[in-house]
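Input.
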Amino acid sequence: MSPIRMGRARVATVSAAELGTRTTELSMALVSGADELDPSGVEVARRVVDRAVERSGIAGDHTVVALAGATGSGKSSLFNALVGADVATIGARRPTTSRPTAGLWGDADASELLEWLGVASRHVVESSAGAGDRPVQVAGSLDGLVLLDLPDFDSRELEHRREAERVLELVDVFVWVTDPQKYADARLHDEFVSLLSHHDAVTLGVLNQADRLTAEGVKVLTQDLTKLLVADGVADAKVLATSALTGQGIPELKQRLANAVAGHAASRQRLKADVVGAATKLRPGVADSEADVGRVPREALDTSLARAAGVPIVLDAVARDYRREAFAHTGWLFARWTKGFASDPLRRLRLDRTGGRPPIPVEIDGADVRAVLGRSSIPAPTVSTASAVDLATRSFVRDASEGLPVRWAQAVEDAVDGGDGALSDSLDRAVIGTSLRARRPVWWFVVNILQWVLGLVALAGLIWYAVLWGFALLQLPRPETPAVGILPLPLVMLVVGVLIGVGLGILSRWWARVGARHRRTVVGKRLTESVAAVADEHILIPVDEVLLRHRETREHLEAAAG
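Output.
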């Protein structure tokens, strides 16, 4: 391998499609989970997405390389040596570069890119320009290179430092220029190199002013600087020793820049590294998995909500109503009038016994719901019942958010809609809207016919006796009365009608208790489904939406980070 090509920069190929996909995934992660992720990481990620979109929309294939360094490192001299002209002002002790200066190679228009970078000072480099008066030959082409001379990052002028930091967020390749006195400067390594170390494929260290050292000294300091860069997190760190005065290392540095320009992949590599870094920083903000709401135990929640909705009270009323209606249809015919003394248990609770009200043709909420639909007279839940609901809800939320980071767990808890009486109103409306009756049993119809027959038979026997009594009272000849054995037929009719009717009524009353238990079970299932629907609306669905956003956020972050 020729000396000029040693240490060729290894820039991974990143396609525009891959960069676009990763950027989109990071953007989608911010859409789904920005409120629950670390705010500082979210702010960085948003800047990264904006920067990637803006840079990808700029026409032309340019590679932006920044020479960054401390005051006195010879950065501007090195810049002049690379462009082959005295473009940058040189200052040995005081920082003289206040605004970035750009050197442009090639004929492609870079105006849009430079405007985006905020660089006004620019110099077009002649194709034959090199160190001194001698052209420097490189394998490949520098066309498309935009070389920036940045303000000193340790400048006493705060504006200079901020300008250097701003531009460093936008460039594609970092060239850290230092000198034998400041190559171990803490500010360089702690505040810049280490923070941008995830761009190791487009990072290069330069030990400038090598003419001030012996050959052995250059070797020792180069190795030492390499170790420092590796400690900063720059994998496979490479350091070149240069001298703007003698031209030492300038050809090798130009070759490095030509290698970075080749393929025009450095910009996409930098943007990809930013996207990956932002996604990786946000990734600890989501868990590796989330609960399936459908598998979280909910028995205690449904039970407590049913009690709060007054379902046991309603079911008792349903059973009593069934027995009351059964008596009205199957009881002894001459005892049914006593039904009027027993109050209607469902009407007392103001429950719609016909199975619900017609839908309201307007959208209403809040207090208007109670004004239009009304409320039942089910007793309000006791303190212990309300506490049981709160405890069951918290337990469900805790199980559903198990393993989630704190922000996501809080989002799950906040998603539960139980404030301002909304849950209580929904439970009451669910009970009101549930049909509490069913089709009348067939045996009611059969027994009712029998009771009417028996009642009429008994009444006929009684009337017959009244007629016979009237004949006797008027001393009229009494007609012959048929007999059943030794018993007169009217007596048989009266006794049979009364005894069998009363017995059938007693039997029907016992059977009505069995039917009431069945009706209670059927209506109980309906009310359970209605209460479960309220739990779904106010608790399960909101919780599931948060968990869905959590899963989407994790998947988008993993896709963005690769």
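Confidence is low (pLDDT under 50) at residues 1-11, 129-134, 353-373.
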